[in-house]
Design a protein that fits this description.
Blueprint lengths: L2 H15 L8 E4 L2 E3 L8 E5 L2 E5 L7 H10 L7 E5 L5 H4 L2 H8 L2 E5 L3 H5 L21 E3 L4 E4 L2 E7 L8 E9 L2 E8 L19 H14 L4 E4 L2 H4 L1 H4 L16 H36 L3
Helix pairs in contact: 6-9
This protein binds zinc ion.
The site of zinc ion has 3 residues, from loops.
């Protein structure tokens, strides 16, 4: 690994060295609750047949998630299904512990299984350097698949690039006779050090990112949530102590705006890399054409 990559990997794991920051748990909408930290988002979806937990944060987030679930009046042991938006340590490093403590089943999209089961070793960017305890996947679903528990159905939309199996989940919540389209989005952020052109470890990366932006801009959305609280403006939308209203997180244009902003960053990087690649090819061609 080059020194540059080593540095990027260090930046990626740096938050792991800081203790998890708590945040007041709250009801987001319907049976969806926020049980994550100040930035690393975790969602609890409560059903009569047990609960779904999406994302755990780092290992030290687990006691905080547990306390958050308890303070909302639910049981940690009622978690039956575990899911992730993408398998990087800041969202899944606590998964193996939650699985062991609750006996819940891990459900994941087929493209993210190698990353989860290798503990991050197959990661195209970080390799083994930002790893986590591997988690066995019990239930594999496909892009477009439905994951159901106790009357709640989530649809998985593959939104790859950040990892090959990054997923956005959609679900409809009915409150006071109105249907709200809720998305737990995996945004197409690009980690420092990511190569979009001629990425031998992930040849489809540029097309995958492009499809992610297309999907994120198209999905119907009244309320958008994300892997990081800052990505959907949790601290702006919610003040601790607020009474519950299904309208608190309504933001019909927020996801599209964020997707467009990230797409612009992606297109700039893609164009820059293409230009660099062109120069390399021209030099190569010139060298071949010029006899020594
Ligand atoms: Zn990530």
């Amino acid at each position: 690994m080059s020194n540059m990559l080593r540095l990027f990997a260090l930046i990626a794991v740096l938050p792991a060295l800081l203790p998890a920051q708590p945040f007041p748990p709250h009801r987001v909408i319907g049976n969806v609750y926020y049980v994550g930290g100040a930035d690393l988002a975790s969602y609890l979806i409560v059903t009569p047949q047990g609960n779904i937990l999406i994302n755990t944060g780092f290992e030290d987030s687990v006691p905080l998630i547990r306390a958050s679930i308890k303070s909302l009046g639910f049981q940690f042991s009622d978690i039956k299904l575990l899911m992730v938006t993408h398998a990087h340590g800041d969202h899944v490093a606590g998964m193996a512990t939650v699985k062991r403590l609750t006996g819940a089943k891990m459900a994941a999209v087929e493209q993210e299984v190698p990353l989860l089961e290798s503990g991050g070793k197959t990661d195209y960017l970080f390799g083994g350097s930002a790893g986590f305890t591997p988690v066995k996947v019990d239930r594999i679903f496909k892009d477009g698949g439905k994951i159901e528990l106790g009357g709640t159905a989530l649809t998985a939309h593959l939104t790859p690039g950040h990892t090959p199996g990054s997923v956005t989940y959609s679900l409809d919540i009915i409150e006071n006779g109105r249907t709200y389209h809720v998305l737990i989005a995996n945004l197409g952020t690009i980690n420092p050090g990511t190569v979009l052109v001629k990425n031998t470890k992930y040849p489809r990366i540029a097309e995958d990112y492009a499809s992610t932006f297309r999907i994120l801009k198209e999905l119907p959305c009244d309320i958008f949530l994300a892997s990081h609280a800052a990505q959907y403006g949790l601290h702006r939308k919610f003040r601790p102590g607020m009474t519950y209203s299904p309208d608190t997180f309504i933001d019909p244009n927020g996801l599209r705006r964020e997707a467009e902003r990230l797409e612009a960053i992606y297109l700039t990087q893609l164009e820059q890399e293409r230009q660099e690649e062109k120069v390399i090819q021209e030099r190569k061609h010139f060298k071949e054409a010029t006899p020594p």
